[in-house]
Amino acid sequence: MSLETMRPNPTWDAASYEDAVDTLAAHNDELVYKVWGGDWCKDCRALLPDFGAALEAAEVSDDRIEEFALDQDKQGPGVEAYDIELIPTIVVEDDDGEELTRFVEDEAVPPAVWLADELEAALETETA
Prior knowledge:
Pfam families: Thioredoxin. The protein is of the alpha+beta class. The chain has one domain: 3-Layer(aba) Sandwich (Glutaredoxin), CATH 3.40.30. The protein has helices at about 20-25, 40-55, 110-125, and strands at about 30-35, 65-70, 90-95, 100-105. A 4-stranded mixed β-sheet has the order 2-1-3-4, with helices on one face. The longest helix has 17 residues, at about 110-125. The radius of gyration is 14 Å and the shape is globular.
């Protein structure tokens, strides 16, 4: 089941988030985004449409985005395995399944910006 809240926000302005989009685009064929949320969740409705738009702007293919719809008890696929407590939660993994970073509901900046900053730091460390 996919998340309606991941449908890209048509009014999102990619130019305002150029650095984040560039970072996501630079790695669009080597990372997997696992998104836990619920269409009933106000935080998911507030955050995920813009994140969906950022992934679209970065040309991240659908096969690199996995969406997990949770019920109102925050139960669903992968919740225990990934220790999901708050939603939305976005886990970014490399192709080997290694978790590089995760965004959890209450970060101070939008998911695309937060993840791009974290990915730059994580991937810079790997190549340094």
